[in-house]
Amino acid sequence: MRDEGQLGRYRARFADTDEDLRRAQALRYRAFREKGGADEARVQSDEDAFDTHCRHILVEETQSGTLVCCFRLLHLLDGQEVTRSYSAQFYDLAALQAFQGPMAEMGRFCIHPDWHDPDILRIAWGAMTGFVDEMGVEMLFGCSSFHGVQAQDYWDAFALLRARHLAPAHWSPQVKSGDVFEFASLAGHRPDLKRAQANMPPLLRTYLLMGGWVSDHAVIDRDMNTLHVFTGLEIAAVPPARARLLRNLAASS
After folding, report:
1. Which end of the chain is more exposed for a tag (fewer CB within 10 A), N or C?
2. What ranges make up the beta strands (E) of the chain?
3. Do 246 and 126 form a contact (C-beta atoms < 8 A)?
4. What is the rounded radius of gyration, in angstroms, for the C-alpha atoms of the chain?
5. 147 with 66: CB under 8 angstroms?
6. Which ranges of 59-209 does DSSP label H, i.e. alpha helix?
């Protein structure tokens, strides 16, 4: 990805100053923690030790300079480094250690809650595609978050994931967290497809359209007030038409 690109009203660029990172952390706080029951006495910034090891991408509205989206990318040389990832805190990723190509973990993806333009997600995926191509990434992965910690709110979505989108057995993440919702408990639940799609996070829907897959359980993350599923995408499996679309977006961002 070039350091700066534009799509419609928006531009995507790498964070390159401490102030850029602080702005991203403030948006993350608003997206993940402000209404999540987190301790209001703490500084309004979502930050952790992984930030210093990642590249951060910002999407801004060009006229106002408003930060409307951000995410971070951790580059890994191969599966042997997967234990360095944020996701490895919550999932047993031993199977993925056999992956031989470069990998990237995408994390803390969020869109400003007051902004709903689909071009924001498009330019974000374009920027991500530019990074993937530049670094030769062969697998993209991360945690896809559902707001709140009540699994019953997402039974239809989870049942659909179980039926159609589970990870192949040779890459399947295993349970590590002590607080999970296992999709196997929905074996008798027939999902309402409309409700399932409506409750699926937009980022996850895009992953799935490209051939992505998920863990067979959701981690209940009470600190972030989310349920999240491990999500993986082998770049070689992306349908050619979608790969062309993403690379066209990357060329503009």
Report:
1. N
2. 4-7, 10-14, 55-61, 67-76, 91-92, 103-111, 139-147, 174-175, 180-182, 213-214, 217-221, 226-234
3. yes
4. 17
5. no
6. 118-135, 155-164, 193-198, 202-209
Q: How far apart are the first and last CA of the chain?
A: 7
**Which tens digit of pLDDT belongs to each residue from 25-84?**
999 999 988 764 445 445 589 999 999 999 999 999 999 999 999 999 999 999 999 999
Looking at this protein, which amino acid is placed at residue 134? Answer: E
Q: Which residues of the chain have pLDDT under 50?
A: 1, 36-38, 40-41
**Identity of the amino acid at 240:** P
pTM exceeds 0.90 for this model: yes
For domain 4-252, the CATH architecture is 3-Layer(aba) Sandwich (3.40)
Structure tokens at 71: 């995410």
Instruction: Give the amino acid at 130.
Output: G
